[in-house]
Amino acid sequence: MIEKIEMIDIVKQFPLVRAVDHVSFSAYSGEIHSLLGENGAGKTCLMKILYGMMKPDEGQILVNGQPVSFHSPRDSIALGIGMVHQHFMLSPVMTVTENIIAGVEPRKNHIFIDMDKAVKDVQALIDRYHFSIDAKAFVQDLSVGEQQRVEILKALYRGARLLILDEPTAVLTPQEVDALFDIMRNLKASGTGIIIITHKLKETLAIADKISVLRQGKLITHRQDLGESTMDDLAEMMVGRDVELNVSSEGPVEGEVYFEVEHCSLTRNGLPVLKDVSFNIRKGEVLGIAGVEGNGQSELAEVLTGNIKADQLVMKKDGVEISGDSHSLMGQGIGHIPEDRLAMGLIVEKSISENLILGYHGRKRFCSHGVLDRKNINSFADSTIKKYGIKTPDGNQKAASLSGGNQQKIVVARVIEEEPDVLVVCQPTRGVDVGAMEFIHHQILGLRKAGKAVLLISADLDEVMNLSDRIAVMYEGKIVKTFDADKVSARELGLWMTGEGNES
Amino acid sequence: MILGLLASTLSLSIPLVLAALGGVMSVRSGVMALGLESMMLFGAFSAVVGSWFSGNAFVGLLCGILGGLVIGLAHALLSVRYKMNQVISGIGLNLLATAATTLFMQIIWNNKGSSATVASVDVTLSFLQNIPVLGEIFARQSILLPVTIAIAIVEWFVLFRTPFGLRLRFVGENPKAASSIGIPVHKMKYIGVAICGMLAGLGGAYLSIVSLDMFVRDMSASRGYIAVAIGILSRYNPVKAMLAGSLFGFCEAVQIYLQGYGVPSQLIQMIPYIVTLLVLVFGVRNIKPPAGVGAHEDD
Amino acid sequence: MNRNRLKSLVIPLFSFFLAIVVCGIIMALCGYNPFTAYSIIFSGAFGSVRNITNTLIQASPLIMTGLGYMVSKRAMLINLGIEGQLYTGAIVAALIGMTDLHLPLILHLAVTMLGGAAAGGLVGLFIGFLKVHFGANEVITTTMTNFIIINFTSYLVNYPLKADGAVAQTERMLETALMPKILPSYQLTYSIVIIALVAVAVKFFIDRTKTGFEIQCVGLNQKASAVAGIKVGGVMLSAMFISGAIGGLAGALQVMSVNRRFIAGFSADYGFSGIAVAALGNDNAIGIILSGIVFGALKNGANILNMTSRTPTEFVAVVQALVVIFVSAPLLINEILHLGAFRRKKKEGLA
């Protein structure tokens, strides 16, 4: 049984960066330890080492004072360590039980899986923690919050006594976060140790017994007692300088209605994904979409930008109806910053210059009679790289060579330089560092100032609340409520996001 | 005549089904099965070599399995360890198998077109010959017919009822997740592809030393690719693969039957390929392979 | 030349070297002396002007099929159907060439080539259509269409189009449709000029044009291309049409300058050799010309080796297959190279 785990002087070197730089860290059973730091600080890397998914270049791990070495998660699991990853490690086409027992299946006759026993055991475990999930349900039919619980069950089923949670609240509503924190307190009371990786300060202060802060791979501080800690000084330790935690927007917008969406409906695989969605955006207005991931936001963005064909949709810009595929909508002034830059935004094997014109490469200034104009492309790329502060020796480098923040700047720059009338922007700062985040936020507000209409879709509720003039809440494919941004609390949004909203 | 057609459907299905069963194992573990052609061809060739040098057809059969295994392991090594594009790896091995078998055929038998005749496996289900109807269909079938059916059923149980099968499918669906709970991803894929090689090798051996007694240049004649289509059509389910395989076996049987009627052979020989094309275009829409095919656990 | 360029050359060159060595070992094990064999191949390929022209003749279809395969592969479409497209182009070219169109030489040549290219292109387009509209895996559909086309053309020259005589072939093409020779006493024809022009055109198309850029983007990241407004389906269709057209032109040029008629099963696996040629040529038009000549030399040399010592010519096919595998597995090559470097270091350490 794990009482105490120590990581001593751990180093992990990657070809270009030292992800973990002489960090020592310890965790105890029956307490919640918050590992705080911004994106790329080395938190996840450190924990993957503890979980046996990565090997450290230097350093030692002790369990109850005994040195151990992990060759694979199998070894750490055997000692009672469990990890819930930020991107869930589940197979959607399999059942809850299959996902939980894989690798440690109960057997009958030595050969076959004893599925009856497995389902019974899993259901008992579910009931013990009051999770209300059907052990026989398919994972693809569960909500994000439920999937996270399956992940926790997976670790508990294997007898985990130390649980590592990697950014567990990123995809949850405020209410689901509360429920998760209750689960964590229960586990703590039963003697389980918990390490929570996060960059959210409020949550850290709400739940943690101890805090360790990482910055650029180094341990900045370790606090046993949170009494003297405030949001501001934790933030400064995390980032290394003062941060503007809020970018404020200014009151309701009075401009004329510019972009209208009416009766947008979409069915996928026989299931309705978007149900009669209608809204409008004024000139110089940011409309934020709040919602738990998987409630139709991604599909809404893809429909409005012409990447998926809706069953029904009327779109008007400046009173004139527009329609078409992504190619023709781009020509009609709809800009799109997609949610996943690696999968949808960039061709990372191509150069930065080529990525900066991708999609607009057919424009007259880059292309005449079907032949690309390399000279113009390169000069455009050089000036854009300078303007957006993309850190690279030159535009001929592959986009793959850049950090997440600089890659995202390419996607943002490409669209903003085209000066779209309407911008559909999804998860603009997911996985970027604080500097790039501030920069991108200012770009979006710049468009707003220039009198464009912006639709902002983000899973980060703080981002939606900070940047939007109005906020529409999506739940199960519908817009269930629209608020003025300065007249609503996160808590109230959270209620509507989970379908618990109440008009009274 | 119907009984005859049925009998030849069964015997012509065997190599297709064996290869498709191999393909199912491979795809379920997350490795595309476009190398099936090479495993069959090399299996067919190895079987003849084994039979030639030992004089024993069953040693030949064993060599056929081993020949398929060798190519299977090469495919696994390239696509799992060296992360080679699985399509290219399959195609490269297909080219290699065609070239290597022709080369060795010349070296051993000094002939570009076919090998010498060797001992063939002639154990049939002759004990059934006195039963009416059934006897006509089954009595002249090879012993490999019940073996193939047994393999399909066992494979189904292994995939869907055993811990090994659950882990193999988990690797195929999400290698990262499998690795995160300590399932040895590479080992599982090696096993999946190795079994694939052995089954396809056995299918190849059937072509050369069960239904014939020699190796003929390119004798697998794209059956490996047809087996890939069978795998898709069966939704990667061994028992359904057996049924889907019989459909293609039937096409080949019709083709042979028609040859007795004076239709130009070049036209008749197009039939199985046209059917495969039609099935691929119209029969297998919305069938998705396991989500993790082609993915690596450390991307 | 920058370092990346240099690095990208290491893999193909070393792969080729490795394939030659592996094959040499096989030869040695089979009782042939690889050094003698390779020197005979080399002198057979380049030993005299006649040998060099024969090497170029061998290289011609390989360069073309390599180019054709490469264009589709840049869009991440594996066109194994070059072989079938080559047959289609060849039979259509033979038919046009047999017909007296009352055209002067230049025009009849042009029409014959265009006809072959268009026919091959349509087959490619058909495969692309199956891929785009039905999601049918092009590796399997091309393999199936190859069989269908090869059998069907064979039927045509065995029955309706058969010329008198024992061989399954068409009548001879007219003189106006045959590619003229460059030098009177050598077999080499102006095909090689056409091929060089095609290579330059392909290079320009891929590197400099809008469609070429889109083909590359679709090949590298289909989803991102679609989001960026590139019409993925259309780009795939263009890539498959061009790929098939080059394959068809390859067949047309072959009947116009070598066979002078369509003969059943005339292709010595030219379509499949193209895969190796493109791999060794680094999927780059200029590289493909060079690698086509290398494999042409190997084939030509191997024929001579076969005449002098009865060494099987299939060694060349083995080298081709190994090149395809090695070039596409850079991690394997890196490991072998590092192994060598490691050994060397160890030795130095001991000394």
How would you characterize this protein structure?
The complex is a heterotrimer of chains A (504), B (299) and C (351). In chain A, the strands form 6 sheets. Chain A has a 6-stranded mixed sheet, sandwiched between helices. In chain A, strands 18-21-22-15-23-24 form a 6-stranded mixed sheet, sandwiched between helices. Chain A folds into 2 domains: 236 residues, 3-Layer(aba) Sandwich (Rossmann fold); 137 residues, Rossmann fold (3-Layer(aba) Sandwich), CATH 3.40.50.300. Chain A contains 17 helices and 24 strands. Chain A has 504 residues and is of the alpha/beta class. Chain B is mostly helical. Chain B has a single domain, classed as ABC transporter involved in vitamin B12 uptake, BtuC (Orthogonal Bundle). Chain B is 70% helix and 0% strand. Chain B is globular, with a radius of gyration of 19 Å. The longest helix of chain B is centred in the N-terminal third of the chain and has 27 residues. Chain C has a domain of 228 residues. By secondary structure, chain C is mainly α. Helix content of chain C is 76%, strand content 0%. Chain C is built from 14 helices and no strands. Chains in contact: A-B, A-C, B-C. The interface between B and C is large, with 44 and 41 residues.
Could you tell me the mean pLDDT of chain A? 90
Report the CATH superfamily of the largest domain in chain A: P-loop containing nucleotide triphosphate hydrolases
The secondary-structure class of chain C comes to: mainly alpha
Q: Regions of chain C with pLDDT < 50 over 5+ consecutive residues?
A: none
Would you kindly provide a brief summary of this structure?
Chain B has helices spanning 2-28, 36-54, 57-81, 86-109, 134-138, 144-161, 163-173, 175-180, 185-210, 223-233, 238-258, 265-268, 271-283.
List keywords for this structure.
heterotrimer, B: 299 residues, mainly alpha, ABC transporter involved in vitamin B12 uptake, BtuC, C: 351 residues, 14 helices, 76% helix
Topology:
The complex is a heterotrimer of chains A (504), B (299) and C (351).
Chain A: E1 4-13, E2 18-28, E3 32-36, H1 43-50, E4 58-63, E5 66-68, H2 73-78, E6 81-84, H3 96-101, E7 107-108, E8 112-113, H4 115-128, H5 144-157, E9 162-166, H6 174-189, E10 193-198, H7 201-207, E11 210-215, E12 218-223, H8 231-239, E13 257-268, E14 271-282, E15 285-290, H9 297-304, E16 312-317, E17 320-322, H10 326-331, E18 334-337, H11 341-345, H12 352-357, E19 367-368, E20 371-372, H13 374-387, H14 404-417, E21 422-426, H15 434-449, E22 453-457, H16 461-467, E23 470-475, E24 478-484, H17 490-497
Parallel strand pairs in A: 3-10, 3-11, 6-9, 9-10, 15-22, 15-23, 18-21, 21-22
Antiparallel strand pairs in A: 1-2, 1-4, 4-5, 7-8, 11-12, 13-14, 13-16, 16-17, 19-20, 23-24
Chain B: H1 2-28, H2 36-54, H3 57-81, H4 86-109, H5 134-138, H6 144-161, H7 163-173, H8 175-180, H9 185-210, H10 223-233, H11 238-258, H12 265-268, H13 271-283
Helix pairs in contact in B: 1-6, 1-9, 1-10, 1-11, 2-3, 2-4, 2-9, 2-10, 3-4, 3-9, 6-7, 6-11, 7-9, 10-11, 11-13
Chain C: H1 3-29, H2 34-46, H3 49-74, H4 82-98, H5 105-134, H6 138-158, H7 191-208, H8 210-220, H9 222-227, H10 232-259, H11 270-280, H12 285-309, H13 314-327, H14 330-350
Helix pairs in contact in C: 1-13, 2-3, 2-12, 3-7, 3-8, 3-10, 3-11, 3-12, 4-5, 4-6, 4-10, 4-11, 5-10, 7-8, 7-12, 8-10, 11-12, 11-13, 12-13
